[in-house]
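Retry 2 of 3 after timeout on previous attempt. Resubmitting structure tokens to design endpoint.
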């Protein structure tokens, strides 16, 4: 049993029953048997458990899980309550407060976002303790690309949030450049163009990564949260509660 929910397993045509995803899962499980791997095995597919496909309204694409003890919980950028905010999440909260004028969530646990339809997806789903991006060779990226392509084909309005060049490249590999996109003009993406042709509304937001190394190059001031909510409202969907704001 992989831990992938029934709805996602069906949507993705049973990915771990076939190559190359079966081999990726086996390699990750072998690594988990030999050394400490984050997040815990029960949380490898937490993002899918908390956000079923019919509820997806936003995809935020991260890189790989946090690699220090007690941090990773299977949701991109999220940490468990009581864990000190990692630098990237601290910057996300800073932009959230500047964008919406409301306090950020009281902890780094983004489960409330996932429950509202935010798929917090890492490109690589596992990592060895203390070694960032150490499982990038296991093949998780092929699975992530299939997820992105499947989400892009869903019938509801969806926003893709791509912070940093790796996330943007992964999206391009998964969805391709033929779909009309709405970006901010940074990192090689075009200026706003509108919705996908002959399909449901889509918004693609790009900006530099929120890490301390790049946040000042355009992440701060990109206002992703208000732009997402405006898009959702404009397309008949409910806005998201990102912090402690009153909608």
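Retry 2 succeeded. Sequence:
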């Amino acid at each position: 049993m992989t831990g992938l929910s029934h709805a996602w397993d069906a949507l993705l045509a049973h990915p771990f029953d076939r190559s190359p995803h079966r081999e990726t899962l086996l390699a990750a499980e072998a690594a988990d048997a030999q050394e400490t791997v984050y997040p815990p095995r029960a949380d490898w597919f937490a993002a899918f458990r908390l956000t079923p496909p019919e509820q997806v309204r936003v995809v935020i694409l991260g890189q790989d899980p946090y690699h220090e003890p007690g941090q990773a919980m299977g949701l991109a950028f999220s940490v468990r309550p009581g864990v000190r905010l990692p630098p990237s999440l601290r910057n996300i909260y800073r932009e959230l407060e500047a964008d919406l004028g409301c306090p950020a969530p009281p902890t780094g646990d983004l489960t409330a976002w996932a429950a509202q339809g935010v798929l917090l997806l890492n490109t690589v789903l596992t990592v060895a303790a203390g070694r960032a991006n150490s499982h990038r060779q296991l093949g998780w990226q092929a699975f992530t690309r299939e997820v992105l392509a499947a989400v892009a084909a869903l019938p509801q309005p969806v926003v893709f949030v791509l912070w940093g060049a790796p996330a943007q490249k992964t999206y391009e590999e998964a969805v391709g450049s033929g779909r009309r996109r709405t970006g901010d003009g940074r990192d090689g993406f075009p200026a706003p163009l509108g919705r996908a042709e002959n399909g449901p509304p889509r918004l693609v937001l790009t900006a530099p990564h929120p890490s301390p190394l790049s946040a000042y190059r355009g992440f701060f001031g990109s206002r992703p949260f208000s732009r997402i909510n405006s898009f959702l409202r404009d397309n008949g969907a409910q806005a998201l509660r990102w912090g402690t704001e009153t909608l």
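Attempt log closed. The longest strand covers residues 158-163.
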